[in-house]
Amino acid sequence: MGLEIKLLGSWEVTANGEPVRLTGERRVGLLARLALSVGRAVPAEQLLADVWGQSTVATPGKQLHIVVSKLRDLLSPHQDDEIIETVSGGYQLNLDRESIDAHLFTLLARQAGAARSQGELATADRLFRQALALWRGDALAGVTAPWAEIESARLQEERLTALEDHFDLRLAAGDHHAVVPTLTAHTEAHPLRERPRAQLMLALYRASRSSEALAAYQETRRLMVDELGIEPGAALRRLQQAVLRRDPALELASAAQRTTLTEPAIPAELPAGTRAFTARAAEVAWLHDTLTGTAPGLPAVAAIDGPGGIGKSALAVHAAHAVADRFADGVLYVDLHAATAGRRPVSPFEALSRLLRSLGVDGTAIPPSLEEAAVLYRSLTLTRNLLIVLDNALDADQVRHLVPAGPACAVIVTSRQIIATLDSASPLHLTELDHADAIALFARLVDPGRVHAEPEAAQQIVLQCSGLPLALRISAARLVARPDWTLSHLADQLTDPAHRLDALEHADLSIRTSIAVSLQHLQQEPAGRDAAHVLLLLGLLETPGYTAAAACALTGWPEHRAEAALNRLLDAHLLESAGPGRYRMPDLIRLHAREQAARHVPEPGRVAAGRRVFHHSLAPARVPVR
After folding, report:
1. Where are the alpha helices (DSSP H) in 44-145?
2. What is the DSSP string of 239-283?
3. Best CATH choice for the domain 512-618 from the list 2.60.200.20, 1.20.1050.10, 1.10.10.10, 3.40.50.300
4. Could you tell me which CATH number the domain at 281-429 has?
5. CB contact at 8 A, 267 and 330
6. Do strands 300-305 and 509-510 pair parallel, antiparallel, or not at all (unpaired)?
């Protein structure tokens, strides 16, 4: 795929499908400005005026040169030719126009119009759908300079024109029943555009809903008089009269006029599964039965929870692939990013907008509020047979509006939190692999021959990974990357608690980062800050388990406060239940908590906490602090 620049929505640069991190208002603005003029020289004075605006920097030309150099350094590794060329008096971006979504959209829309004019309606339909699918939101979102606002408005108008051209095409092909919901949403989003109002009236009339077509006209007239002080245009008034007299010209003249357009592509959005998927036979069978079972009037919802790195996403994707062929209307997938370091979780409205676009709703037709978008989503999913995977959810509130309405639909939710308040959800609590399954997974990942050659070292590695699939993947990746290493060498690194977390890092995989994401979410909740503080203090202890009374002594808090913090850690899978009123912390989480306590809890606080726990242990019958 090479280097791609995406302007039709939130700003994005990718190389071979992977994001390229670009920060800085001027770097983003300069690359966007060059991208819109790709293949053409842009004078330096124009770039300075557009990107720097009224800035009073002393050396604007030097600043421009610095930003260009930074962009070259960032982009050159992904492009053989000089990506930003210095030309007479300015700069030029050298990239295929089709690699920039704004130019690709214009090209596809133009090709669609040409195909339509030549009577190739199926081809035109396909090209319109490809063009409109490029939009992910407002053009140049996040670029606020005046030139960007002008370009955004221009591109937005091109999108509305293409969308309405596509509506005309679909109406001409007899697709009036199917376009009514999306046309309704589109007119609500753009109430003063007369063309889609006329299209909606025609679609309703052809769908034998004449009274609704006339009501749509009256609503249009009311809005235009109230907002603009004018009557609807002549074309809309003529259409109203034609509806009133049931003019035969409004009908398709004959069945021969109907054209079978290309069917909308059935979404198949699942990420690829992994060939190394191992064990979990009982869980896969449970998911199969849950997703394919029937409950009167309700979609099936399977909620998988478990700690970070336990394999929730891998299990969800594996199970979804196994049942995908049972869902005639396709499979949708959304990563909600509650487990992604450095990214905020996707808002419910953003996720809902993504799902609506996957269901064929153009971005301009998506209602502006969460509640209205949820109503449209329920309407579109009521009669469909869809499987929807909502991966890495933060909590039930994030996914509540994303559950479809159709009883023939099914949903898989994965989360580090226990999703206990989601209506009709069936929970699956995922735990670490048992030793035999962990050995089998490790052998598949690293090489059965190497494991067979050093069985004791392999056993030690698996033991120190605590049955956590992520830790096993990292260990295997390090060994694959270093074929000269023995398994014993890695086992020695993992055996040392002081360096175990260092050994469990490779490329973009890290146990520290995985645990830190859960801890960060806790610290962002008012009710979770106590839990995060307790976790760090518990990491200082060497005891195999804890009670609320011990946590009281450790923190100096009343028992009800300490117990609430422990239960919050239990819900977040940072602690495990060790029986009624007792808790335990997994070894890898303990190591991370201990590191964080050393960094963030002052030494006097650590000493005082240790002293309180010591006195508590000497007097087990002592009444807890209240």
Report:
1. 44-47, 60-75, 101-117, 121-132
2. HHHHHHTT-GGGS-S-GGG---PPPPPPPB-PPP--TT----HHH
3. 1.10.10.10
4. 3.40.50.300
5. yes
6. unpaired
CB count within 10 Å of CB 216 equals 24
Local confidence band at 256 (pLDDT 50, 70, 90 cut-offs): very low
H or E element, residue 302: strand 300-305
Mean pLDDT calculated for residue range 518-547: 90
What three-state secondary structure class fits 498?
coil
Does 83 score more than 50 pLDDT? yes
Strands 90-93 vs 3-6: parallel, antiparallel or unpaired: unpaired
Write the pLDDT tens digit of every residue in 1-43. 588 999 998 888 988 877 888 888 899 999 999 999 999 999 9
Q: Do domains 3-101 and 512-618 have the same CATH topology?
A: yes
Which DSSP letter does residue 52 get? I
Task: Name the amino acid, one letter, at 296.
Answer: P
Q: Please give the DSSP secondary-structure letter assigned to residue 41.
A: -
Is 334 within 8 Å of 355 (Cβ atoms)? yes
Task: State residue 255's pLDDT score.
Answer: 47
Query: What are the beta bridge partners of residue 506?
Result: 509
Closest CA to 437 of 416, 404, 466, 408: 466
Q: Which helix (H) or strand (E) holds 322?
A: helix 312-323
Which DSSP string do the residues of 175-233 spell out, in sequence order? -HHHHHHHHHHHHHHSTT-HHHHHHHHHHHHHTT-HHHHHHHHHHHHHHHHHHHS-PPP
